[in-house]
Amino acid sequence: MMQGSPDIVGDSPAWLSFIWIAFTTALGLMLLGIYFIPVDWWVKGYLYMGTLFLTASTLTLSKSLRDRHEHERLVNRVKSARTEQVLSKFDT
């Protein structure tokens, strides 16, 4: 039988706050830097578009990696449960 559930423990509120503060600060400073750079408006538009797509693709990538990791953990837990079941039938 499986002892405890290590999956219940999550990130601390301090860590989540740090992540959000770092993300918003980095994005805000990038947007501010683009705004004040002395170039034509179309260059700024290109930089804004690049920042938007880079941010969106980074968020999508991190979500996909997290989903894949959670899927692999679930598959491993199911395999472990099946192994436990087979072993318990073998012992009886």
Automatic annotation (TrEMBL):
Top-rank taxon: Bacteria
Pfam family, one: YiaAB
Residue ranges the record marks as coiled coil: none
Transmembrane segments: 12-37
GO terms (BP aspect): DNA damage response
GO cellular component: plasma membrane
Keywords: Membrane, Transmembrane, Transmembrane helix
Domain YiaAB two helix: 15-67
The protein's name in its UniProt record: YiaAB two helix domain-containing protein
Originating species: Deinococcus arenae
